[in-house]
Design brief:
By secondary structure, this protein is an alpha+beta fold. The chain has one domain. The protein has four helices and four strands; from the N terminus they run αββαββαα. The relative contact order is 0.24. The model has no long low-confidence stretch (mean pLDDT about 85).
Length: about 70
C-alpha cells in the first residue's frame, strides 16, 4: 500500500493565489517543499493545508507501521 502513496494524489491549495494542484500522498506526508504552479509561491503544507497534511501523515505512518512495511506480497 505504501507504493500507492507514491502514486495517488490529493489536492493542495496555495494560500497566496488560492489555486489548487495535486501532490502525491507521500510527498504531502513528508512535508516536502511545494511551489505553486500558478504564482510560484511556496506552499506550506503543514500550515496552509493542515487538514490534508494531517490526514496524509496519519495514513502514510499507519502504512509504514504495518508488519510488511506497507508492501503487499503476492
Amino acid at each position: 500500500m505504501l507504493e500507492t502513496c507514491r502514486v495517488f494524489k490529493e489536492p493542495v491549495r496555495c494560500a497566496a493565489c488560492g489555486s489548487r494542484q495535486y501532490e502525491t500522498m507521500l510527498r504531502i506526508a513528508e512535508g516536502a517543499p511545494v511551489t505553486c504552479i500558478e504564482c510560484q509561491q511556496d506552499i506550506d503544507l503543514a500550515h496552509d493545508n493542515s487538514e490534508t497534511f494531517a490526514r496524509m501523515l496519519t495514513f502514510v505512518q499507519s502504512e509504514l507501521a504495518r508488519p510488511n512495511g506497507g508492501l503487499q506480497t503476492l
